Amino acid sequence: MKSYNTVTEAVNDLQLRGYTINFNLKPDCVESAEKHISIHPQDFEIDEIYRFEGNSDPGDESIVYAISSVKENLKGILVNAFGTYAETFSSELIAKLSSQIK
């Protein structure tokens, strides 16, 4: 797995490698509003994860997920604040996103 210094660097490289869909978190899935696609945890894989700490505040962390779905034939990126899984997200989605974080 590659190493990046910034979120922007990671996102740009992932886009060059075909991760072109921008995903957002929804209560029980990841969604691309621009593509009108919602993908549930059982229908996507997390290919790569990159975690970044803020320069001035180590508590200010972001995480970049490289996500693919064979079922939907797509690859995309989810950028999220690390550890901010509210109770409004399904346990299945939280487990999927947390399973590979070390």
Low confidence ranges: none
Going across the biggest sheet, name each strand in turn: 3-2-1-6-5-4
Number of domains: 1
Tell me the Rg in angstroms: 13 Å
Order of helices and strands: HEEEEEEH
Helical content (DSSP H or I, runs of 4+):
10-25%
Shape, per Cα inertia axes: globular
Largest beta-sheet details = 6 strands, mixed
What class, by secondary structure content? alpha+beta
Report the mean per-residue pLDDT as an integer: 85
Q: What percentage of amino acids are in beta strands?
A: 35-45%
End-to-end Cα distance: 14 Å
The number of helical segments is 2
Could you give the count of β-strands? 6
Structural account:
This protein is of the alpha+beta class and 102 residues long. The protein has two helices and six strands, in the order H-E-E-E-E-E-E-H. The chain has a six-stranded mixed β-sheet with strand order 3-2-1-6-5-4, sandwiched between helices. A hairpin with a 2-residue loop joins strand 1 (21-26) and strand 2. It starts with 6 loop residues before the first helix and ends with a helix.
Give a nutshell description of this structure:
The chain is of the alpha+beta class and 102 residues long. It has helices at residues 7-16, 91-98; strands at residues 21-26, 29-32, 37-39, 45-53, 61-69, 74-81.
